[in-house]
Amino acid sequence: MPTRPLQVLLVEDSEDDAELILLELRRAGYAPSAERVESADAFRAALAGRAWDVVLCDNAMPALDASGVLGLLRESGLDVPLVVVSGTIGEERAVALMRAGATDFVMKRSLGRLAPVVEREVRQAAERRERRRAEQDAFRLAALVESSDDAIISKTLDGAVTSWNPAPVSTRSADGAYPARRSSRSISSASSAESSTTSTKMGEVVIVSLS
Predict the structure, then answer these.
(1) Euclidean distance between the first and the last CA atom of the chain, given in angstroms as a whole number
(2) CA dist., res. 94 & res. 106, Å (int)
(3) How far, in Å, CA of 113 to CA of 106, rounded?
(4) Angle between helices 114-147 and 15-27 (to 10 degrees)
């Protein structure tokens, strides 16, 4: 029985072809929740209505083609993989669509390729989102560390210091000078500061309050 949930946005003018595509995904162990659209307005509304794992798009339809769908997807700013599923497509057209942002294409006569392609593209999209989240978290942490009045020291698991913020190194006076410097001895002294340590997968972050 299908066990893997999959949110599928189908851009397809043939109801029969759409059902064959979903049947192939079910055979591969997916439990697709799908919406089929045929026009630009319906595609925009579907994108805005819910989160999608993948867009499966026919190459050419009366009201919309794959190039138009790619343009709408770019406009949305969403990172959703788009796989072209077509009955006929020339090599030049396929290359042009890939350059425009399509992640892959599958011929309707070879739907056995669809599930592995979808699995790969969904996984890679999830990895991209995770990298962006990690980068955003690192940026926020860096900004917090940079502006903190406490000493924040990052160490590897074996104790090697990898980074520290500038706040404990020097304090600027009202006239802009740097009259006082705190040594590493004063930073690490338990008698003059309170400290806390947070462990991460990469090592430790030591926060020493200098107030």
Answers:
(1) 61
(2) 10
(3) 7
(4) 80
Residue closest to 207 by CA, chosen among 195, 190, 193: 195
DSSP secondary-structure letter at 190? T
In DSSP notation, 20-38 reads HHHHHHHHTTEEEEEEEE-
Encode pLDDT of 22-38 as tens digits.
Answer: 999 999 999 999 999 99
In 3D, which of 71, 38, 69 has the Cα closest to residue 55? Answer: 69
d(CA 79, CA 101): 11
Q: Which residues contact 105 (CB under 8 A, 6 or more apart)?
A: 59, 83, 84, 85, 86, 89, 94, 97, 98
Q: Is 165 helix (H, G, I), strand (E, B) or coil?
A: coil
Any idea what DSSP says for residue 65? B
> For 72-89, what is the mean pLDDT?
93
Q: How far apart are CA 36 and CA 8, in angstroms?
A: 9
